[in-house]
Amino acid sequence: MAMTKFELIGTLCLISSIALVSSSDTFSVQGRVYCDTCRVGFETNITEYVSGAKVKVECTHFTTNKVEHHNEGVTDSTGSYKINVVDDHENEICEVVLVESSLENCKEIEIGRDRAQVLLANEAVEMQLE
């Protein structure tokens, strides 16, 4: 039985990079997860979004590689997730990472396509909005 890939949606990099920020320094990281049944690396007309997939936002200090922040979320019935992250993380490299699929026929996670870097710093978000 062939396993299908489980990966972040191709446009997630853009969606996640545009993390929303409020005046209270809370960022909202949003995106979708899908099963790449055709192994093409992008959405198709038969794309299956994964509900119940575990996703995490992890921020690692860029000089020490120590994990400074970790927050998990689960996708809803449309394969969408929203993870709130408190505080500015300008000295850290933050990524949205797939943890686990809820689909038995879609458990294989392809390394390198299982994550998307996100900017969670007030200055970075302000520069993107200008």
Could you explain how this protein is built, in words?
The longest helix has 8 residues. Strands 1, 2, 3, 4, 7 and 9 form a six-stranded mixed sheet that branches. A four-stranded antiparallel sheet has the order 6-5-8-10. The N terminus is likely disordered. With 130 residues, the protein is mainly β. It has a single domain, classed as Immunoglobulin-like (Sandwich), CATH 2.60.40. Helices cover 11% and strands 44% of the residues. The termini are far apart. The chain has two helices and ten strands. Keywords: Disulfide bond, Signal. Pfam families: Pollen_Ole_e_1 (PF01190). InterPro entries: Allergen_Ole_e_I_CS (IPR006040), Pollen_Ole_e1_allergen (IPR006041).
Summarize the structure.
Helix content is 11%, strand content 44%. With 130 residues, it is mainly β.
Task: Give the SSE layout.
Layout: E1 5-8, H1 12-17, E2 20-21, E3 26-36, E4 48-49, E5 54-61, E6 67-74, E7 80-86, E8 92-100, E9 108-109, E10 115-118, H2 122-129
Task: Please identify, by name, the CATH architecture.
Answer: Sandwich
pLDDT < 50 stretches: 1-18
What's the assembly state of these chains? single chain
- Indicate the proportion of strand residues: 35-45%
Total beta strands: 10
Structural class: mainly beta
Round the mean pLDDT to the nearest integer and report it: 76
The CATH C-level name is Mainly Beta
Number of structurally distinct domains: 1
Q: What letter string, H or E per element, gives the SSE order?
A: EHEEEEEEEEEH
Biggest sheet statistics: 6 strands, mixed
Please give the radius of gyration in angstroms: 15 Å
